[in-house]
Design goal:
The protein has 195 residues and is mainly alpha-helical. It contains 5 helices and 3 strands.
Amino acid sequence: MTNPPPADVPQPEVAPIPPGAAELLEGMSEEQASLTLGLGVVVQRAAETEYILHGLYAHLGGVERPYTDKPHETVKHFITKAKNRLTTPANERIPAQARAALLHDLDLCTASFEERNRYIHSCWVYDDDVHGWRTVKGTRGLSRPDIGLVSSEDVWDLASEFARLRDNLVAWDAHFFGTPGDPELDVPPASSKRL
């Protein structure tokens, strides 16, 4: 016989499954569940990256309060304008070598957000013959769809890439626009945008 836990020890609460969710998950294969969870993580990490991108874009423009600088715009706008602001001769706050590395990260953000858009806006069908997901997405300006082959691992790789980019952008923002840290106390610089 086991003893019940003491009453003073808090028991973890299990989040309730929303009504109707069980029916949506019923019958999902392991591959479908992995893809579904992976897409959710991609969306979350991409949103965090976009949040930091907006702050970086605003700071590069000399804006003290980022929420006053077009927070409603698209991530493509933030990246394009951040690059423009970064390459203007007046932007001497960031040394040339750091500027090149930040531009490289912004290029990687562009590629990752394009891939995110393809994943999020595609119809997914599992192809047993190739053991992968066929994606079908409409393409702007073309009369044929974009058809791709993707694995669940590709989705998780993109989620990891967004986490890496988010961390890099936080470090850039902290270094050039955040509050200075204290190396003696092992306190790193902090970004002005908090996650």
